[in-house]
Amino acid sequence: MKFKQLAHQYKTALLDDVLPFWEQHSLDRQQGGYFTCLGRDGTVFDTDKFVWLQARQVWTFAMLYNRLEPRPGWLEIARHGAEFLRRYGMDADGNWYFSLDRCGRPLVQPYTLFSDCFAAMAFAQYAVAAGDEPAAELACRTFDNILQREGNPKGAYNKLVPGTRPLKNFALPMILCNLTLELEHLLPVESVEAQIARAVHEILEVFLDPATGLVSENVAPDGGRVDSFDGRLLNPGHAVEAMWFLMEVGQRRSDPDLVRRAVEITLATLEHGWDHEYGGLFYFLDRLGRPPQQLEWDQKLWWGHLEALIALADGYAQTRRGECLDWYRRIHDYTWSHFPDPEYGEWYGYLNRRGEVLLPLKGGKWKGCFHVPRALFRCWQVFEKLDAD
């Protein structure tokens, strides 16, 4: 593959297409924060504000300001969202709501820790970009709160009957691996090392099934497999996202064995999760091949493909394994031929199994300014370095 051309493709898509779409359409100049429910052409179709999407957009523009170029406009966009979140995003106990109305009044209680996780990421990056010490303190307080709630993340909002079928979910250990690295500049060294070690252990020794090389979304507290809808659930996008988190840890530790394991799991996940009839990665699968509970199981979603591209680009850069490039070509070709919208800009998020656009929106309750720009930036950087080597 011609790495120079790939670097250019990702760079121009990020700077000339995706970021301008959000810069033009997402800022709520009257009430603060961002609109994320955007139609194909950027028209706002709903004004509710979802806290983790608000935080993700703050992170995106602050991260690009810090790591790519200190553009004043990017810092101002990050500030626009950060001030809205700081004013309206938390309850009295410092837990982050799930959603707010346009004016910032809370709509949905803080039933999920992922709002907190992305708020911590956002304020950690924004603190660096803006030189804002209170933002750094807020990021650390939020991180501490996440760790305190980790054992019972939903708290009073947990609808399950305790004790009958206890399950551990993969999403929180996975995101804590990345979140700890995001806050590394703010945390004590011993805390960083302990959290990363724990996350690596959970991913590889608890959620990974050594017999298949696949990562389960839910396991028993002792790591055992559970024969139920939730216990059999696989999410290929989640698994490969976690693998590039592990590759970052492996590179940080100078641990080629960890990188190698992450690459092996990535390849096994893609082989299992690929739709060999229509192309693309399935959203959900059942590890025993039974019908999944999720009716959307066979949809093709933007974020899973983007996470796979990051994992494969990083995996090849660190190992030079040809299988990474082979899979990269396959997923790159599918992704770039199906998700970008050349007429109105940005990317579609939801395709049906055949690869046809299912929802023409560019943002909504779950899709915002995060996965697309993050992947474009990371792949651009990897390919630019590979071209220079």
Folded structure, characterized:
With 389 residues, this protein is mostly helical. The protein has a domain at 165-350: Alpha/alpha barrel (Glycosyltransferase), CATH 1.50.10. Helices cover 54% and strands 8% of the residues. It contains twelve helices and 14 strands. The strands form six sheets. It has a three-stranded antiparallel beta sheet. Strands 12-13-14 form a three-stranded antiparallel beta sheet. It has a two-stranded antiparallel ribbon with strand order 1-2. The protein is globular, with a radius of gyration of 20 Å. The two termini are 14 Å apart. The model has no long low-confidence stretch (mean pLDDT 97).
**Secondary-structure arrangement, i.e. CATH architecture of the domain at 165-350:** Alpha/alpha barrel
Report the sheet-strand fraction.
Answer: 5-15%
Report low-confidence residues grouped into runs of 5 or more. Answer: none
**Helix count, per DSSP?**
12
Work out the number of β strands: 14
Let me know the average pLDDT: 97
Give the N-terminus to C-terminus distance in angstroms: 14 Å
SS-based class:
mainly alpha
Oligomeric grouping of the chains: single chain
Largest sheet: 3 strands, antiparallel
CATH class of the domain at 165-350: Mainly Alpha
Cα gyration radius (Å): 20 Å
Enter the CATH topology name of the domain at 165-350: Glycosyltransferase
Q: Major sheet: order of its strands? A: 3-4-5
SSE order: HEEEHHEEHHEHHEEEEHHEEHHEEH
Shape: globular
